[in-house]
């Protein structure tokens, strides 16, 4: 579901555990108020909330937001259609998330290995 063609212009997701709403906004090219709205519309999107209702997104949330963005902005889905597509493909989406995470971690480890060799 996460298609590189749709998200190649977006920055790489840094190796962090938690992201603020501002960071996610920049990483996904979506304004913070849109992210808050999508939380209400997509049950798969559940950032952690801490003191003062501050949102902390994890890597899988960022990937999900990029998928939602691709469906809505690039593929022309409605909110309802995107919600249905995501809920119908949850198992496939989980595998896609895992593969994306593994690929990114591998690239980062290869970069670290290259730097250590130099």
Automatic annotation (TrEMBL):
* UniProt xrefs under CDD domains: HTH_MlrA-like_sg2
Named from the GO MF annotations, one term is: DNA-binding transcription factor activity
SMART domains in the record, alphabetically? HTH_MERR (SM00422)
What are the HTH merR-type domain coordinates in residue numbering?
Answer: 18-88
Q: Name one Pfam family in it.
A: MerR_1
Membrane-crossing ranges are: none
* DNA-binding as UniProt keyword: yes
Write the record's keywords in alphabetical order, separated by commas.
DNA-binding
Name used for this protein in its record: HTH merR-type domain-containing protein
Q: Tell me what organism the protein belongs to.
A: Candidatus Tenderia electrophaga
């Amino acid at each position: 579901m996460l298609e590189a063609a749709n998200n190649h212009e977006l920055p790489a997701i840094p190796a962090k555990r938690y992201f603020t709403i501002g960071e996610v906004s920049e990483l996904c090219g979506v304004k913070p108020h849109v992210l808050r709205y999508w939380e209400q519309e997509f049950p798969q999107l559940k950032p952690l909330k801490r003191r003062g209702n501050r949102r902390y997104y994890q890597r899988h949330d960022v990937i999900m937001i990029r998928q939602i963005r691709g469906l809505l902005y690039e593929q022309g889905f409605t909110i309802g259609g995107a919600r249905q597509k995501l809920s119908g493909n949850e198992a496939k989406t989980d595998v896609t998330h895992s593969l994306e995470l593994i690929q990114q971690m591998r690239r980062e480890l290869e970069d670290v290995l290259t730097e250590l060799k130099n």
